[in-house]
Design goal:
Distance between the termini: 36 Å
Number of helices: 7
Radius of gyration: 16 Å
Largest sheet: 5 strands, mixed
Order of helices and strands: EEEHEHEHEHEEEHHEH
Strand content: 15-25%
Oligomer: single chain
Number of strands: 10
Strand order of the largest sheet: 5-4-1-6-9
Structural class: alpha/beta
Protein backbone atom coordinates (compact mmCIF):
# COMPACT_ATOMS: atom_id res chain seq x y z
CA UNK A 1 0.00 0.00 0.00
CA UNK A 2 1.47 3.34 -1.09
CA UNK A 3 0.49 6.85 -0.07
CA UNK A 4 1.13 9.60 -2.59
CA UNK A 5 2.26 12.75 -0.77
CA UNK A 6 1.95 15.89 -2.91
CA UNK A 7 4.32 18.50 -1.50
CA UNK A 8 2.53 21.78 -2.27
CA UNK A 9 3.69 24.19 0.41
CA UNK A 10 6.68 25.87 -1.24
CA UNK A 11 7.04 29.61 -1.80
CA UNK A 12 7.61 29.76 -5.62
CA UNK A 13 10.47 32.20 -4.99
CA UNK A 14 12.03 31.83 -8.46
CA UNK A 15 8.68 32.34 -10.19
CA UNK A 16 7.67 35.49 -8.31
CA UNK A 17 4.02 34.38 -8.16
CA UNK A 18 2.44 31.21 -6.81
CA UNK A 19 3.12 28.80 -9.67
CA UNK A 20 0.73 26.13 -8.39
CA UNK A 21 -2.21 28.43 -9.12
CA UNK A 22 -1.08 29.30 -12.66
CA UNK A 23 -3.26 27.84 -15.42
CA UNK A 24 -2.37 25.43 -18.18
CA UNK A 25 -5.28 24.46 -20.45
CA UNK A 26 -7.80 25.99 -18.01
CA UNK A 27 -6.54 23.95 -15.05
CA UNK A 28 -4.26 25.13 -12.30
CA UNK A 29 -0.88 23.42 -12.03
CA UNK A 30 -1.79 21.83 -8.67
CA UNK A 31 -4.96 20.36 -10.21
CA UNK A 32 -2.97 18.66 -12.97
CA UNK A 33 -0.73 16.97 -10.39
CA UNK A 34 -3.68 16.00 -8.18
CA UNK A 35 -5.52 14.49 -11.18
CA UNK A 36 -2.46 12.45 -12.18
CA UNK A 37 -2.14 11.11 -8.63
CA UNK A 38 -5.87 10.43 -8.25
CA UNK A 39 -6.07 8.58 -11.57
CA UNK A 40 -3.10 6.37 -10.67
CA UNK A 41 -2.81 3.16 -8.64
CA UNK A 42 -1.81 5.01 -5.46
CA UNK A 43 -3.80 3.71 -2.48
CA UNK A 44 -4.13 7.13 -0.84
CA UNK A 45 -3.27 10.72 -1.83
CA UNK A 46 -2.46 13.54 0.59
CA UNK A 47 -1.69 17.16 -0.30
CA UNK A 48 0.51 19.14 2.08
CA UNK A 49 -0.31 22.84 1.57
CA UNK A 50 0.57 26.34 2.78
CA UNK A 51 -2.00 28.48 0.94
CA UNK A 52 -5.65 28.03 1.89
CA UNK A 53 -6.61 28.01 -1.81
CA UNK A 54 -4.38 24.97 -2.45
CA UNK A 55 -6.00 23.13 0.46
CA UNK A 56 -9.46 24.01 -0.85
CA UNK A 57 -8.56 22.73 -4.33
CA UNK A 58 -7.26 19.44 -2.90
CA UNK A 59 -10.43 18.95 -0.84
CA UNK A 60 -12.58 19.71 -3.91
CA UNK A 61 -10.97 16.59 -5.46
CA UNK A 62 -11.75 14.60 -2.30
CA UNK A 63 -8.06 14.53 -1.44
CA UNK A 64 -6.91 14.72 2.17
CA UNK A 65 -5.31 18.15 2.70
CA UNK A 66 -2.92 18.88 5.56
CA UNK A 67 -1.88 22.43 6.45
CA UNK A 68 1.88 22.97 6.80
CA UNK A 69 2.33 25.68 9.42
CA UNK A 70 6.12 25.18 9.35
CA UNK A 71 6.54 25.58 5.58
CA UNK A 72 9.38 28.08 6.14
CA UNK A 73 11.50 25.23 7.53
CA UNK A 74 11.66 23.65 4.06
CA UNK A 75 10.61 20.52 2.22
CA UNK A 76 11.37 18.30 5.22
CA UNK A 77 8.19 19.51 6.92
CA UNK A 78 6.03 18.33 3.99
CA UNK A 79 7.74 14.93 4.13
CA UNK A 80 7.16 14.58 7.88
CA UNK A 81 3.53 15.78 7.76
CA UNK A 82 2.78 13.45 4.87
CA UNK A 83 4.15 10.43 6.72
CA UNK A 84 2.39 11.32 9.98
CA UNK A 85 -0.96 11.64 8.16
CA UNK A 86 -0.57 8.51 6.03
CA UNK A 87 -2.46 5.26 6.53
CA UNK A 88 0.35 3.36 4.80
CA UNK A 89 4.06 2.70 5.32
CA UNK A 90 5.41 3.23 1.81
CA UNK A 91 5.43 6.71 0.35
CA UNK A 92 5.60 8.30 -3.07
CA UNK A 93 6.67 11.92 -2.78
CA UNK A 94 5.39 14.10 -5.61
CA UNK A 95 6.34 17.71 -6.20
CA UNK A 96 3.38 19.92 -7.04
CA UNK A 97 5.15 21.77 -9.86
CA UNK A 98 5.35 18.98 -12.47
CA UNK A 99 2.26 19.88 -14.52
CA UNK A 100 3.00 17.38 -17.30
CA UNK A 101 3.18 14.31 -15.08
CA UNK A 102 0.54 11.68 -15.76
CA UNK A 103 -0.88 8.59 -14.07
CA UNK A 104 1.01 6.28 -16.46
CA UNK A 105 4.40 7.40 -15.14
CA UNK A 106 3.17 7.13 -11.56
CA UNK A 107 1.88 3.61 -12.28
CA UNK A 108 5.18 2.60 -13.89
CA UNK A 109 7.03 3.63 -10.74
CA UNK A 110 4.48 1.80 -8.55
CA UNK A 111 4.83 -1.33 -10.70
CA UNK A 112 8.61 -1.26 -10.23
CA UNK A 113 8.16 -0.80 -6.50
CA UNK A 114 5.86 -3.82 -6.25
CA UNK A 115 8.66 -5.94 -7.74
CA UNK A 116 11.34 -4.33 -5.51
CA UNK A 117 9.62 -3.58 -2.20
CA UNK A 118 12.82 -2.83 -0.28
CA UNK A 119 14.15 -0.34 -2.86
CA UNK A 120 13.93 3.43 -3.26
CA UNK A 121 12.34 3.87 -6.70
CA UNK A 122 13.68 6.86 -8.66
CA UNK A 123 12.75 8.00 -12.19
CA UNK A 124 15.81 8.67 -14.33
CA UNK A 125 16.86 9.61 -17.85
CA UNK A 126 20.44 9.83 -19.16
CA UNK A 127 21.95 10.03 -15.66
CA UNK A 128 19.48 12.68 -14.51
CA UNK A 129 17.06 11.90 -11.70
CA UNK A 130 13.73 13.48 -10.86
CA UNK A 131 10.58 13.07 -8.80
CA UNK A 132 8.29 11.39 -7.86
CA UNK A 133 10.32 9.03 -5.66
CA UNK A 134 9.01 6.05 -3.70
CA UNK A 135 10.52 5.21 -0.31
CA UNK A 136 9.79 1.81 1.24
CA UNK A 137 8.69 1.31 4.85
CA UNK A 138 12.21 0.58 6.11
CA UNK A 139 13.13 4.26 5.60
CA UNK A 140 10.23 5.70 7.60
CA UNK A 141 12.35 6.66 10.63
CA UNK A 142 15.10 8.16 8.41
CA UNK A 143 12.48 10.28 6.65
CA UNK A 144 10.99 11.49 9.93
CA UNK A 145 14.41 12.79 10.98
CA UNK A 146 15.24 14.92 7.93
CA UNK A 147 15.64 18.67 8.33
CA UNK A 148 15.70 21.73 6.08
CA UNK A 149 14.92 21.91 2.39
CA UNK A 150 16.53 18.66 1.23
CA UNK A 151 13.75 16.12 1.28
CA UNK A 152 15.20 12.60 1.06
CA UNK A 153 18.42 13.49 -0.79
CA UNK A 154 20.74 12.47 2.05
CA UNK A 155 18.99 9.12 2.42
CA UNK A 156 19.43 8.47 -1.31
CA UNK A 157 23.11 9.42 -1.08
CA UNK A 158 23.71 7.25 2.02
CA UNK A 159 21.98 4.10 0.73
CA UNK A 160 23.07 3.65 -2.91
CA UNK A 161 22.57 -0.13 -2.65
CA UNK A 162 18.86 0.49 -1.96
CA UNK A 163 18.20 2.45 -5.15
CA UNK A 164 16.34 1.18 -8.20
CA UNK A 165 16.39 3.56 -11.15
CA UNK A 166 13.46 3.47 -13.58
CA UNK A 167 14.16 4.87 -17.04
CA UNK A 168 11.56 7.34 -18.27
CA UNK A 169 11.72 7.92 -22.02
CA UNK A 170 9.76 11.17 -22.22
CA UNK A 171 11.69 13.28 -19.73
CA UNK A 172 9.59 16.37 -20.57
CA UNK A 173 6.75 14.83 -18.55
CA UNK A 174 8.84 15.25 -15.38
CA UNK A 175 10.08 18.80 -15.94
CA UNK A 176 9.67 21.13 -12.98
CA UNK A 177 7.97 24.47 -13.41
CA UNK A 178 10.46 26.85 -11.78
CA UNK A 179 10.57 29.98 -13.91
CA UNK A 180 8.31 31.99 -16.20
CA UNK A 181 10.45 30.67 -19.08
CA UNK A 182 9.50 27.08 -18.10
CA UNK A 183 5.84 28.10 -18.01
CA UNK A 184 6.01 29.68 -21.50
CA UNK A 185 7.67 26.53 -22.88
CA UNK A 186 4.89 24.31 -21.49
CA UNK A 187 2.15 26.61 -22.80
CA UNK A 188 3.83 26.78 -26.22
CA UNK A 189 4.27 22.98 -26.29
CA UNK A 190 0.58 22.45 -25.41
CA UNK A 191 -0.56 24.86 -28.11
CA UNK A 192 1.36 22.85 -30.72
CA UNK A 193 -0.28 19.57 -29.67
Amino acid sequence: MITGIIMASGFSSRMGTDKLLMKINDKRVIELVIEAARNSNLDEVITIYRLKEIGDIARSYNIKAVYNRKAKLGQSQSVILGIRNSKNHSYMFLVADQPCINHLIINELISNYRKNKDKIIIPSHKNEISMPIIFPAKFKQNLLQIKGDKGGRDIIRNYPESIKMVNIDDWNLLKDLDTMEDYKKIIHHDEKQ
